[in-house]
Write a structure and sequence with these properties.
single chain; about 450 residues; alpha/beta; about 20% strand
Length: about 450
Amino acid sequence: MERKVCKFGGTSMADGNVILRAAQIVRAEDSRRYVVVSAPGKRFSGDIKVTDLLYQCSDEFESGDISAFEKTFEKICTRFLNIESEIGKDLGIKAGLEKTKEEILQGAGRDYCASRGEYFAAKIMAAVLDVPFVDATEFIRFTENGTLSEETFVLGEKVLKQYARAVIPGFYGLGADGKVKTFSRGGGDISGSIVARSVMASLYENWTDVSGFYACDPRIVSSPKCMKEISYQELRELSYMGANVLHSESIFPVRSAGIPIRICNTFRPEDAGTYIVRFNQRKLGEEIVTGVAGKKGFTSITIEKSLMNAEIGFVQKVLAVTGKHGISFEHLPSGIDTMSLVIDNEQLKDGVLPTLIAEIEEAVKPDRIYAHENIALVATVGHNMKNSVGTSARLFKALSEAGINVNMIDLGSSGLNIIVGVENEDCVDCIRAIYNEFFH
């Protein structure tokens, strides 16, 4: 029996009318049996996502500003009650909201508070579709260090096989301490992938407000190409670098089972969308590049030392320093006597950079060590690149003609990507130049 899992994002749950549209999409195919939903997103420019309001509630409660908490929580109540009114049914939301408020005031915690947007959205969708609601805490489990537990898939299969159809809230599960725990923002996509793996779905449909995966950010290039098909690996590379149609970690549960993902547009359900599959089937001679994406805000720490290659444990000593501070690196380009650590600036807050440099200097006694701050990383990704002669030459020629100086080059060992480091202010022009070279 064919079984599809549908995940509807925040824009697809923004108000009652859109929720009814999403429900119509589910009903259009009998194989769409399991639905995962996000919290209501923005209805218009300047609107506030329900999850942001819930985080605000939590902050106000923790700070002791109960008056502000009351006002913010009232906005959340109004939002959900308006949805209920637009749907035209009494869904019992008011009583649930009052209970939630009591639990937050009794110290249920920040993650619990943040999760209620998905919880009530799923309650609403389940009522509209007239199918069972299954809480994510029944099967999604986290380990003590906050990672997804493998127990999740065993429980997921056991719990969900009891239901021919169900609606499940995204974004959260149960922590090792028995309390509600959330994924990182955008983690509802991971929840959808978990459900797809648990029921061994034939397809995981991710419904959003775009018609597929674009080869470039539409805010940078007007009307970029929409790709018919990309691989899990290509998606992972591009989504991590800022192409945020789908959470970068959402592929892991489905990849091992070979379950394809389809990106669909709730507002244009007739569009073909983009399929994300295990292996890209594009042939040589078709698009060389799958996509271009960039991310600002990195720092490169460069270490130079003669005969570095002959010094056993050199890299280990450097990484011991970053590990001591709980800092991970994004890239590690190196030469025979040089190496660079590329680190996200988010990990270098509170003045840790000078300390890091001093400790690395003490650990490995380099000839020279220096930092280059405010770097943007731009990734050009595609399975066909390694088999296409002159890809790198075309890329760097395009950047040269655009007057963009490259500070760093990192060629992925798989041949799947070419990453360049440029100044933050050159990021957009860099992406545009590369896209125009390969797609125009």
